[in-house]
Amino acid sequence: MKIDQFQRLAPRVWRLEPTGPMRVPGLIFADEPLLLDMDDKVREQVSHVAALPGIVGASCAMPDAHWGYGFPIGGVAAFDPDEGGVVSAGGVGFDISCGVRTLVTGLTAETVRASQGKLADALYAAIPAGVGSTGRIALNPHEMEAMLTGGARWAVEKGYGSGADLERTEEEGCMAGALPKEVSSRARERQREQMGTLGSGNHYMEVQEVAEIFDPVIAGGYGLSRGDAVISIHCGSRGLGHQIGTEFLRSMVESAPSHGIHLPDRELACAPIHSPVGEAYLGAMRAGINCALANRQILTHLAREVFERALPQANLQVLYDVSHNTCKLEEHRIDGRPRMVYVHRKGATRAFAPGHPALPEALRPFGQPVLIGGSMGTASYIMAGTRESEALAFSSSCHGAGRRMSRRQAKKQWQGREVIRTLEQRGILIRGHTHRGIAEEAPDAYKDVTAVVDSAHDAGLSRKVVRLTPMICVKG
Amino acid sequence: MADIGVRGVGPTQAAAFEQAALALTAVLTDPSGVHDTEEVRVTCQAGDRELLLVDWLNALIYEMAVRSLIFGRFEVTLSGDRLDGSAWGETIRRGSHALAVEVKGATLTALRVTREDSGEWVAQCVVDV
């Protein structure tokens, strides 16, 4: 996009003046090359979001922002219900609460490498992944209800983990305010056999090495040392979340005129927070968050089972679990006073500052772990929430590398078999269900995750703690 | 999270809807490799043709998800605000269909059902994969 449309507030902070129907300015956080590389649609979508009723502060885009439906992916926006603020299904995304959970293992990367092939095969065999895969748990109606209300807490009660896991999960593993009655029978049907499945596309379970430490104090606080092996799980609320998103996007389009909401484009479909549709969506979306938290908890259990057999000296503990696609009621200082606002993060990570009461006691002095997934051939990062991020972007940061190439382009450019072979030569074992899927996920199909993370760090959205490099990647 | 566009082009609106559904399958796999051993019928109703397209694609996405089916052939009849459609396909064979991604849902982005100057109909939108 063109740079002259923006006022440069800081080297990595770009302001879009409010014009026309925009109620607040736009803010894009990126270095110059990343901004230049962004599709102009990102600017257009940031402007559209800035025009929605009840928006406060600014309409933000993270360094990994790209064109999405309605809100940009990498978009952050907060709405005040007392000023007619809205909630938008397109502002959360279809994969509700898609996120990353990272586990420390108590193992060194060297130990993992000694059993790398065996471990890769065992994980691939144990983790249901790919289109059409089913989990070993088929939920009956009663269990479905309990899962939608209880989230990861339900999973732990069923024997998939411990209370310590919950302490290290956003919302302590259970999103309050879920309304299972607002989750349709079709959404439930899509989920019935999908608990404990990874999904497909960019979802993965990865065994990684702590390759570089940027902040030794915070890394120590997170229990990370150079050469450690960790596991990261990237997945979401599976079919249930997809169906909730689909249905509410549609019902918000239909109800918008009755609320006096005139949309510049129907893709911005939204409803007042205090309206029957808005409240129903929030209740269903929170149930979707619980589904994602339960799903990552079950996958954690499956990983533990594999490690118990393959490397029994391992001790898999949750470092933290973050969600990328949510709308949450949070307190933020806006115009100098604290206000309760509904923060949409679509492809963006919550990044609470050190001392935030929502953080577990052990992590509170260091700030919230911000888990950034890269591509399967490059790197992932763990960052930490900062105090500056509160004023910049409602305590939010980036979520990943972001695609730079479409799946179609990637498929034309690479062969899955070749990608696997090249990565194997670099010591990275890929296990996936389709070569086409692996070609579409080729590392070079993604933006440079390091540039994204550096921009987030330099802008003050979050600070770099460690860099992780992949050793084993199980793809959906 | 990633999005991809699907576009159907045909001499009639119904044909464009059928082609958009075929494009949806192409996001997942090569449609020519899908056998039509099973038929699923769907009915949708919507105030305008664009929303009807979204409903049609979402109905197919739902049927694919809960029945583990993949479709290779489609037939659509449009009448007023109603769509009656049939989709023929088979149970997903993970080895041979090699599905790369699953489609989460059809969106309202780049949503368009229009007649081009050439006289052909175009039916398109972005789907989330």
Question: Can you offer a commentary on this structure?
Answer:
The complex is a heterodimer of chains A (476) and B (129). Chain A has 476 residues and is α+β, with helices and mostly antiparallel strands. Helices cover 34% and strands 25% of the residues of chain A. With 129 residues, chain B is an alpha+beta fold. In chain B, strands 1, 5, 6 and 7 form a 4-stranded antiparallel β-sheet that branches. In chain B, strand 6 and strand 7 (121-128) form a beta hairpin. The model of chain B has no long low-confidence stretch (mean pLDDT 93). At the A-B interface, helix 8, helix 10, helix 13 and helix 15 of A face helix 2 and strand 5 of B.
What's this, in brief?
Chain A is of the alpha+beta class.
List keywords for this structure.
heterodimer, A: 476 residues, alpha+beta, seven-stranded mixed beta sheet, 25% strand, B: 129 residues, three-stranded antiparallel beta sheet, 7 strands
